[in-house]
Specification:
There is one protein chain. The protein is an all-alpha fold. The chain has one domain. Helix content is 81%, strand content 0%. The chain is elongated. The protein starts with 10 loop residues before the first helix and ends with a helix.
């Protein structure tokens, strides 16, 4: 493959080289990428949880007496979402590991 490893080589070859994976791996890679993106989104929301609730109170969307409770509920929902994504990633990794071990055993 000419252009592979060359900084100023043709971009087409680099993209074609990246897309040579079987469809199953591309699908899993896309799912993993979306899960990691979900982790980043949840992390950003968890960082700004206090400010988001305060802005909603200031805008009149929430009553002050419910702000603490709603902040706690949003925090729990974010924690559960983070946990679900982490479990999904671990299952994906475990499934890939078991499939790889099965392929090694079949070849041996």
């Amino acid at each position: 493959m000419s252009g592979q490893g060359v900084v100023n080589g043709p971009q087409r070859l680099a993209v074609a080289w990246l897309m040579r994976f079987p469809p199953r791996l591309r699908r899993e890679g896309r799912r993993l990428g979306l899960m990691v993106l979900g982790h980043f989104i949840i992390f950003a929301l968890a960082l700004g949880n206090d400010e988001i609730i305060a802005a909603c109170v200031n805008a009149g969307l929430l009553e002050v007496r419910y702000a603490g409770t709603i902040e706690l509920i949003v925090g729990v929902v974010l924690f559960v979402g983070w946990s679900v994504l982490t479990i999904a990633i671990m299952r994906m990794v475990d499934r890939a590991r078991s499939e790889a071990l099965a392929e090694v055993r079949d070849k041996a």
